[in-house]
Structures are given as C-alpha cells and as structure tokens.
Specification:
Blueprint: E1 3-12, E2 15-21, E3 24-25, E4 30-34, H1 41-48, E5 56-61, E6 64-65, H2 68-71, E7 74-77, H3 89-99, H4 104-117, H5 133-145, E8 151-155, H6 163-178, E9 182-186, H7 190-196, E10 199-204, E11 207-213, H8 214-220, E12 226-231, E13 241-245, E14 253-258, H9 264-273, E15 277-283, H10 288-299
Parallel strand pairs: 4-9, 4-10, 7-8, 8-9
Antiparallel strand pairs: 1-2, 1-3, 1-5, 5-6, 10-11, 12-14, 12-15, 13-14
Helix pairs in contact: 3-4, 3-5
C-alpha cells in the first residue's frame, strides 16, 4: 500500500469532520475519493499532505508513519486554483520546483518536457493572467508533476477543461499509472471515475460508507439486469421477467429484468422454448452515479 489510514479523526470546533477513517490506497492504482460536498474529502487530502494534522489516528506512507519527507514525494493539485497572476509561467514553475528541492537544470528540462505534452511551449514566458482557465489548470498540473511524485493527488482536476482537454488529461493520468505512479482522484464526475479508477472510497458525513475495488462495488449493487441481443419475436407478457426496450437501440436489443428470485438461466430457458434465437447476453452493471446516490441515501435514513 502507498497509503494506509488507521482510525483517522479530525474535528473543527464541535463538528466531527472525519470519524474513524480507515482507507488503504494500493500502489500503482488510480484511487477514487468520492463524496458529497462537505463530506470530508478535502480534509482527508489535507491530512495526507500534512497541511493539517489529525486529532487522532495514524497515516502510513509505504508502511511507515507519514513524515514531511514523504510529502516531498507527493504531487498535489488542489481544488482551489492559485497562480501568481503577474509572474511568468516558467518562472513560477521553477519556483514551485525549488520548493521540492529540484535542481534548476533538472527543473528546466522537466518543464520543457511537460510543456510539449500539454502544448504550453509558446506560453512559458507569458504571465499567468493572460492564460485561459484551462491553460492555467495545465500549469498547475505541471507544477504537481515536475518532481516525478510517487503519489499524485488530484482534487477535481477536470474543472475548467473542455471535453478535448479533459480527454487528454484522462490519457495522461492512465499513462502515469502505467509508469507506476499512484494516483488519488477526487471528482464529482462519476463517468470519469468509472473509466479511470481501480479502487474507490465513498465518504459521507465524515464516515467511509463504501470502500473497495470498483468491480466488486458494482457487483454488490447489481440489480441482475441483462442486455439481450436476439432474433425472433419476444413474448408480450411473462410472469418471470420484464422486458424493456433500449431507447438508443435500433437493433433487436432489450433489457430483461427478473421478477423476484429468477436466475438468468431460467429466463433464457423461457425465451429459447419460445423459439427466440439469442445472440448475446451482457449484464447491465449499475453506473457509479446510481451507486453514489443510493449509498448516500441509505446513510441519511
């Protein structure tokens, strides 16, 4: 594990912001940190980066108590954006690199490489205030990557990006993971979480209410619904399952839903006995947006 937290607690005045948080973040993974606004995600990130300290509990980095030297091995893109408006892009990137003790020549080389990737080469001498919001976001992302961090923490990284640049960022996140970087991704974009994350934790009201591998969580919330591609004429009525047409499909594809505790084999047997030719069957997995809403609603009952 790159990060392990044990009974992490944090209170601000009388409000318990984090309540006995136990989260393990595997090395080399993209870990989704999810939750409604005010759930405690940003506080959790600030504890990981030692911006603030926990009231109690422990954080381990690669199996050892988290220290300030470990923070130098992290890259952090906060949700709150902030660049020096009048300062040139390259100048402030060099400044940020110096805070991580990166030699000037090494920093310049890293800046050049990342500027080429992010199409920022012609903008390095410009002051930040002349850059678009998306370009400023790229600069801040570069600042978090110059020192090749072991752990990269991204808090709402897609804010301000158009769809094209958001796709480029997704591809870069995947490439970083493939190179061995561990990534914590905090985002409200559930489609992005599904596409990128291997593991996730969902925090609500300061407590972890979901934690595990994405596939296992989807299985736990499965409604046992199936997308069926077929030939023939489907029955109009049936006592074992419901049949719903797929709005976006012009082919013979439908969604079949069991009524009660009916297995897939039982449903398929009915269709085969009625002369339906089955081309393919694929489980309809619940999307993360649905899981998020359902899990949060359960904790508020």
């Amino acid at each position: 594990m790159i990060i392990e937290t044990k009974d992490l607690n944090k209170k601000f005045q009388s409000k318990q912001v984090l309540d006995h948080i136990n989260i393990n973040i595997p090395k080399g993974s993209i870990f989704g940190l999810l939750g409604p606004n005010g759930a405690g995600k940003t506080t959790f990130i600030r504890l990981l980066t030692k911006i603030i300290e926990p009231d109690s509990g422990e954080i381990l980095f690669e199996g050892k108590p988290l220290s300030m030297s470990d923070v130098y091995q992290m890259g952090y893109l906060p949700e709150e954006r902030g660049l020096y408006k009048k300062m040139g892009v390259e100048e402030q990137l060099l400044f940020f690199a110096s805070l991580k003790n990166i030699p000037n020549n090494q920093a310049k080389k890293a800046i050049k490489n990342w500027a080429e990737k992010f199409d920022l080469g012609k903008l390095l001498k410009k002051p930040a205030e002349e850059l678009s919001k998306g370009m400023q976001q790229k600069v801040q992302l570069m600042a978090s990557l110059l020192h090749n961090p072991k752990l990269l923490i991204l808090d709402e990284p897609f804010s301000g990006f158009d769809p094209i640049h958001a796709q480029l960022l997704q591809e870069e996140i995947i490439a970083l993971k493939e190179q061995g970087t561990s990534i914590v991704l905090s985002s409200h974009r559930m489609d992005t979480v599904e596409q990128l994350c291997d593991h996730l934790a969902l925090i609500n009201q300061g407590k972890v209410i979901l934690d595990g591998e994405l596939e296992e969580i989807q299985k736990a919330y499965s409604k046992q619904e199936w997308i069926l591609e077929y030939d023939g004429e489907l029955p109009q009525t049936n006592e074992l399952f419901k049949i719903d047409c797929l709005k976006d499909s012009k082919e013979k594809r439908v969604l079949i839903k069991p009524i009660g505790k009916v297995s897939l084999n039982e449903m398929l047997a009915v269709l085969l006995n009625q002369g339906i030719s089955i081309k393919s069957v694929k489980e309809q997995k619940p999307n993360m947006n649905t899981i998020f809403i359902e899990a949060v609603a359960q904790t508020q009952k």
